[in-house]
Amino acid sequence: MSHRFANPDRQDQILLDEMLQEPRKFKVLLHNDDYTTMEFVIAVLVQVFRKTAQQATAIMLSVHEKGVGECGVFTAEVAETKVAIVHARARKEGFPLRCSMEEV
Fold it and tell me: Which Pfam families has this protein been placed in (predicted)?
């Protein structure tokens, strides 16, 4: 006789393991454009991503030279919020700065 849940303790452990998994992580990226000033990018990195001036400058240079720079790694909700904040600030200042998130 076969039971679907022949070992209920095992089933409970599987459910617990699924519930305890680390949340998915996403890296937030800034993308280069020809209009957003370097000063604005640095300000966003300091204010939104809590980077030091030195860290912000290094990321800004990556954006400028490589076309993209990583701002940090966050849970989905935090990453989505930071992307929205960057876009809102950029639009308010008249910049086309693009920010995206990508699963790690």
Answer: ClpS
Structure tokens given for 80 = 């989505």
Asked if pLDDT for residue 98 goes beyond 80, the answer is yes
What does the DSSP assignment read for 49-91? Answer: T---HHHHHHHHHHHHHHSEEEEEEEEHHHHHHHHHHHHHHHH
Total structural domains in the chain? 1
Element (H, E) at 102: strand 98-103
Domain of residue 43 covers 34-103
In a domain, 41, yes or no: yes
pLDDT at 7: 60
- Counting Cβ atoms within 10 Å, is residue 82 exposed (0-12), middle (13-18) or buried (19+)? buried
DSSP 21: S
